[in-house]
Fold L-ectoine synthase.
Amino acid sequence: MIVKHLEDVLGTKHDVDTETWNSRRLLLKKDGMGFSMHDTLIKAGTETQIWYKNHLEAVYCIEGEGEIEPEGDRIYPIRPGTLYALNGNEKHLLRAKSTMRMICVFNPPVTGEEVHDADGVYPLPEEDKAEAPSA
């Protein structure tokens, strides 16, 4: 059984803070669950380009407001209670009107130390490349 509290992650290497977001990584690849789970803050007034071409992601908003704009699609509002799933590895823009608190689940799981590259992509560890969803 795994039991963690957000306080266990804050201030550690699994509390990744950038200019536009802060990802507190609760469950990681090493935990062996087959997915990772993050408590993420999207900072108010920011826009972030993201493209999880190596991961599927589901996101549930528990606080704040903003919007997501998948490439070539319409803009979807985000508010508490909104779930979106990037089941097609969609490249997207995430905009926060106010700070949004999001619970994010990734498959395959991340190791906990990833940051987005110039394209907004999390790199995929070598051992997971054969199992990755196709873009």
Remarks:
- The helical segments are 6-9.
- The chain has one domain: 17-131.
- The first helix runs from residue 6 to 9.
- The chain has a mean pLDDT of 88.
